[in-house]
Design brief:
The protein is an alpha+beta fold. The chain has two helices and four strands; from the N terminus they run H-H-E-E-E-E. It has a single domain, classed as Beta-lactamase Inhibitory Protein, Chain:B, domain 1. 47% of the residues lie in helices and 30% in strands.
Length: 98
């Protein structure tokens, strides 16, 4: 019985460590996804309101007609929003979570 305990303890410790690391890796993306979900419908919202709620984008680029494309990326989550020339969200162009 004692030999079984000495064999099982390192195995259980390794599994616990793996679970904690896995949870930590996914946490930033889960938090970002929750912030976006809390906003509800994004279409029609001003850019400043969205940025104030979820934080600055990871990337931003211009598009034809003075439009802007903003991306937020965190481990396990990615969302891309398009904004018109006045800074109003036209909608989500891409969203993925792992």
């Amino acid at each position: 019985m004692d030999q079984l305990i000495w064999f099982a303890l390192p195995l259980l410790g390794g599994l616990l460590l793996f679970a904690l690391i896995s949870a930590g890796v996914r946490a930033p993306g889960q938090l970002l996804a929750q912030k976006f979900a809390a906003l509800g419908t994004l279409k029609g919202r001003p850019m400043q309101e969205i940025v104030a709620a979820v934080g600055p984008p990871s990337a931003q680029s211009g598009a034809a007609g003075g439009k802007q494309v903003l991306q937020w990326m965190a481990t396990g989550y990615h969302i891309v929003l398009r904004f018109d020339a006045e800074g109003v969200c036209e909608g989500v162009t891409h969203e993925a979570s792992v």
